[in-house]
Sequence to fold (375 residues):
Amino acid sequence: MITGAKQWLERIHALPHKKDKVKIMNVCGGHERSITMAGLRKALPVYIELVPGPGCPVCICPEEDIFEAIQLALNEDIILVAFGDMLRVPVNVPKAKARTLEQAKAQGADIRPIASPTEAVSIAIDNPDKAVVFFAAGFETTTAPVAAMMVEGVPDNLSVLLSGRLTWPAVAMLLESGEAGFDALVAPGHVSTIMGPEEWEFVVEKHNIPAAVAGFQPESLLAAMYSTLRQLNDERYFLDNCYQQLVKPGGNKSAQAHLKKAMNVYDANWRGVGIIPKSGYILDEAYSKHDARKLFPCYADDARKRAGQMPPGCDCAQVVLGKIYPNECKLFGKACIPRNPIGPCMVSDEGACRIWWAGGMREAANKEPVKKVVG
Fold:
């Protein structure tokens, strides 16, 4: 039985290949971080391109949702809590105004970073005379605990400003566009743990593209890559599970039940991308008394609901969709760096731009040529 990364690399190098280029997309920020930090791009044969895809929930959180959270915190007598990465994501407003939740906090708003929904509940319990708003952005793995929190019951003074998204519809959109830009898919392990690996069967059955679920260690990622490459060679495509330690058939039924009870799915906006059908979560009407959008004045700015929501010159949307590599954005490593992020992909540890920077891949594409994702 092959278990080590070195052995998987040897098997990949030994594979024959029929195509000059094979593009494998990963759909998880954690996968991209492991790939970059382990130097897998340099270790793989030159014909293989690893394409970072739409795996960063912070990157695609709609600007209007972040703007609304900022305005709620500044204008209402509340405590606003959010996952830490969300505090630094910028929106497009004049420089004199708060561009991030972090800047709103500096202007006096009571904004607190948290790491889990249980912290939001604790803060509400500790402040019974204060309204607490939980700005909850994230994919299925983050949204499922929020749903569980709602089902189990929350303090009367806690409400949720929900910005949850599903992962698979973005991949479906890419495939249905006819310009997917990849030949095989490495599916996200954590999402599959919750929702079940079966969620990715459409990639194979509908689009005839090989797919494999992977964990976050190099050996699991390389095993998934080997599987998809072998499938391409054999012209026999199927969904492989290379993360069987945690990903089980059917997924986590309890988490799915909580999501189904507390939330509904709707056609949702993705920052810089636009509306993707059946890709967002909203609170079910049964939990309306804990829906911040129904409890507070509306600060949403409809003018912000457009595909071009990224700051001027920022190509984060193209990076998210796997159309370009991070260092092909003209702002990367120049105006946009971690201590001064222009776009959301440079903010989060799951954003491809931030990952590349942290991994030492800091040269712009015009200085250090890179392989194009889409020809």
User: Anything to note?
Assistant: DSSP finds 16 helices and eleven strands in the chain. Residues 118 and 149 are 8 Å apart (CA to CA).
